[in-house]
Amino acid sequence: MRAEGRSGREIADELSDETLVERFLAGGRRDDTMFAEIFRRRRLDVWRVCWRFFGNRQDAEDLTQEVFFTVYRKLPQFEGQSSFRTWLHRIAANTCRNEIRSRSRRPQGTATDLDDAAPLPSRHESPEDRAIREQLQDRLTRALAGLSEGDRSVLEQVEFEGRPYADIAADSGVSVSAVKMRVLRARLALVESHRKLESKGVTT
User: Fold this and answer.
1) Which fold would CATH assign to domain 114-199?
2) What pLDDT score was predicted for residue 84?
């Protein structure tokens, strides 16, 4: 039973990683207090794994976000056969290896920003391919529109404008870590918004 006057954060701080996962999933992911505690508690662990692979602060930061994005989606697959920390480190290492393989196949000078990575029309694009591309782009636009103003704003600043976390933090009057958490939550909200559109069969 929840103690009177205690915040969800204070309660979460006392729980094991495994219990945090159980409660987060049991709540249908509606309350992100438990996941926020997992992120706060294990972010540095994941960052160190990514740092060992790349030896670059920005790469480590970017891959840490990617790891927790993956963890959020794969949490239902955690069966407790190993500790959550071991499971998390395995995902982090696999994410880094996949990134290394992806870079090895990527021609030098290839743009990697979200804008540049978006599908572009081709002279040889068939009408069917064009329709699929336009449908995906429209669904992404609708998914973004379904976010709160705060989530949409922070995603646009990071993904489309390329603003550094430190600049956003300075403008918002919060810590860089708080901005990173906002970005992670916004990305997860975007995935959920997109998933709802898919389940409804929303096209154009």
Assistant:
1) Arc Repressor Mutant, subunit A (1.10.10)
2) 92
